[in-house]
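ingest -> validate -> predict -> emit
validate: passed (alphabet ok, no gaps, 189 aa)
predict: started
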Amino acid sequence: MPAPSITADELRAAMPNLRAFAMSLCGNRDRADDLVQDTLIRAWAKMDRFEAGTNLNAWLFTILRNGFYSDYRHRVREVEDADGSYAGRLFSIPDQEAHLDLEDFQKALMTLSADHREALLLVGVEGFTYEQAAEICGCVLGTIKSRVNRARTRLAALLSIESESDLGTDKIILAALPMATEPTLQVGQ
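emit:
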């Protein structure tokens, strides 16, 4: 193994200038000291790449600068969360469960009569008012209300949904079922 081309004394001599440069980059004394330390460790580990006779300070400053920007890119994507509250609010519902819920919902929806399914889709999914849905279907307001109520109740029973906590996150499913919308209408109201 060839003799080291950089001595520990040369690295120590460069430290004040490295520290000043690090402070100008990050503006924090502790962070600057860490950056200088990382730079010296990297330089010592890669001293075989240093070409004797070239400018040692320029090489060290390049290592420090590259280390700073590399670390900066990583830190930009990080969120400080000392108490874990931010991480506790992050969650992702698995896609496969939503897909299966939607398939079950579609199967259950297709078991409804055409009149009930039509009324439910117009009001629950398309967002039409009961009055608009009655006009579209050519029937009276009470009939649409009854059809939507019966369709929602039947879907909830087919999907074994007893409370709002049983609902998934799919907006179509949520709109079509009674727990997610208005209170269930009773026939004759």
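The chain has two domains: 8-86, 95-180.
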